[in-house]
Specification:
This protein has 97 residues and is α+β, with helices and mostly antiparallel strands. It has 4 helices and 4 strands; from the N terminus they run E-H-H-E-E-H-H-E. The model has no long low-confidence stretch (mean pLDDT 97).
C-alpha cells in the first residue's frame, strides 16, 4: 500500500508554458523506469501552473526518487523555464482507492 507521496508545483516563465508542458510529458519514461514509484501524475491547473504528484510504498523509495533522474532534469531546465523554484511537499497518504 502506498503511504508516501510527493506534491511538486511549478510555475512557468511567461512564454515558456509549452516548454514546461513538454518537459513534464518527457519525464514519463523516467518515472516508468522507477519500479518503486507506484503512481506518477503530471498535471496542469492553468496556462502557467503545472506539477507532479507521485506515490511510494516506503519513505526510502520517496527519498530515492528525490535523488533521481526527474529532479535532476528539472534542476537543469528549471532556471530557463520556471518563474521560481519548484514547491515540493512531502505528503503522507491517508487513504487510497
Amino acid at each position: 500500500m502506498v503511504k508516501y507521496a510527493l506534491l511538486a508545483r511549478v510555475e512557468a516563465k511567461a512564454g515558456k508554458e509549452a516548454d514546461v508542458e513538454r518537459f513534464l510529458k518527457s519525464a514519463l519514461p523516467l518515472a516508468q523506469a522507477e519500479p518503486a514509484t507506484r503512481a506518477w501524475y503530471a498535471w496542469k491547473i492553468d496556462a502557467k501552473t503545472f506539477g507532479i504528484f507521485d506515490t511510494f510504498e516506503t519513505e526510502d523509495a520517496r527519498n530515492a526518487h528525490l535523488g533521481g533522474a526527474i529532479p535532476a532534469a528539472l534542476g537543469q531546465v528549471g532556471p530557463d523555464l520556471l518563474a521560481a523554484d519548484p514547491s515540493i511537499q512531502l505528503v503522507d497518504v491517508i487513504a487510497v482507492k
